[in-house]
């Protein structure tokens, strides 16, 4: 069966160069528009191989997934069953649940809310500067250093996700050689947008890529950008902040067993989680623990920065939890995406975040982060966190299982038995690990003897000895003050 597409007809602002126009037999170009999907595609719902995305308020934004070894079964998520049963009581039997959840997802569906569109250029005398923007009165101070990352002169194209105040941005950068002594042989520009949420920004990447090429070839041609802004500008509440940045927990918790909304994939159509896992290998288990502990994680890499922004997003996905109430009292795990020295003041007040940078000077700013990631090297200057950088026996076992599940998924895909993807597998794997831990903690906390034993720790999928320090950090961060730790766990 064919999947429904989230592509839409071109609007007036969506100009396609003659060389890029598809022929009659080619697939239509990826282009945003008003004719968006209003509900999840139903053809994948029966397989249980996909699920809706998360917002960063209760776990970072991103798609959720199902397990590769259960492509034709529904993954068990005990934490959502009670709420789902209540919904079913009011909406008939289980056969009507699909339609009910789909209706809830339609009502929640995030809308286009573009609050600004802008052009940034590099001037050989003054450096990065804001060339043009709409609306004219919006505060874009500093966006010129986010839309053109430090060191971008070494690359020809790039894309950058970033935060600007309470908004998220996506900018596409291009560097074109020119025969101009005034421009020192190169013209560099970036075209970007701002929105209250990052989950739909990917839909405009193709448009931004085309527009930045247009700006390089014909500087000052802003009419497509003006038409785009008029079509997509946000209708925000008076405060400009009361907006939905992710699917409400009571919706995606019930919908996890159903079909995933394609618009929730930040990297659609290209996945990034599988590349993320392969890049870090076993070290992904270290990042998983640090993300679950809501630590401040800073990732360094030279340009291009686009793929590193995806690593920020993937780090956030490692900390997804779908059990209602868990994590409410802990700091939000904020994705800052790309940052530069102008963000130092903002980072000083952040208790938990994930960000990336191209500026090596941040490595010396040890008070701004807890964990520094350079290539595959994960390090920390916090003595209390250094033991967490060592893999436990349970970490290696989990990674082995993850690798096995991936191989089973690839085998199923080769035989046409499963429509799930590696993205589905990886994200749900960590979601289930997190749910398993907090479900076990909740059961122990509610028992007559609230003591964590070796058996209860193993039930969480952790190593009673190797993960003891991680568990103690977890109890402290998530406020499990009433739980006692057995003396057996003190023996290393």
TrEMBL record:
Keywords: Guanine-nucleotide releasing factor. Transmembrane segments: none annotated. Residues 58-492 form the UDENN domain. Coiled coil: none annotated. It comes from the Eukaryota. Residues 82-92 have a biased composition (Basic and acidic residues). The keyword Transferase does not apply. The keyword S-adenosyl-L-methionine does not apply. GO terms for cellular component: cytoplasm. Residues 1-92 are annotated as: Disordered. GO terms for molecular function: guanyl-nucleotide exchange factor activity. Residues 36-46 have a biased composition (Polar residues). It holds the Pfam family DENND11. Belongs to the DENND11 family. This is DENN domain-containing protein 11. It comes from Takifugu bimaculatus.
